[in-house]
Amino acid sequence: MGTRVGEITDRSAIIWTRISAAPVRNNEGNLIPGRTQDYPSKQLPKANVPVGQLEGACPGAPGRVRLRYGTKVDLSDSQTTDWMDVSEASDFIHQFALDGLKQGTNHYYESETSSVDGKPHSTFRGEFVTAPAASAPGNFSFCVMTCQGYPDRGHPDGHSIYPAMLAMKPAFACLTGDLVYYDNDMPRATSPELAITGNGCSACPGSFSSTATSEPTG
Ligand SMILES: [Fe+2]
What we know:
Elements: E1 2-6, E2 13-18, E3 63-70, E4 79-80, E5 84-86, E6 93-98, E7 106-114, E8 120-129, E9 142-145, H1 161-167, E10 172-175, H2 192-197
Parallel strand pairs: 9-10
Antiparallel strand pairs: 1-2, 2-6, 3-4, 3-5, 3-7, 7-8
The structure holds fe (ii) ion.
């Protein structure tokens, strides 16, 4: 599965989770090389295999997910959410809206997943820091990114910029859009299925190697 934490304020945060069918995206699938400008107009190659068989595909899996979260590393003070079902209708995603958090404080979480009938998968741990009170002065740095191309990955597991950004210890990263182009690279995302599951999918484990990490589901 993968997780990401966003919309962090001094008291709240949203933890995004998605259950994937495999620990990593499909690195051995059918690759359609190039970008749209490499092909004559209206002669773009089309995906002729199921989307899950394309290189970079990351199909989801139905199941259940819940979170434990608190301010201690060992989660000894943690609260636990209800189990939430995820299915194809939600692209196997659930967003946990956490509230009542402590200002300017490290928070730790562990997501648990299971199959639809409750068979445990694995767990994944993460952490984030809430914003300080709006009235509290402070110095901080943050990162901004946009306009990312799937073929421009710096290494097989993602874009090198993310470890570089993380090394700067930013307070947060602002992802402003065009996270991964769906129209420049092949196959062009001409359907919701291709946009969600096809190459460069932002839900793929490893696509954002530092900000979204993955664990085997089985
Ligand atoms: Fe762009």
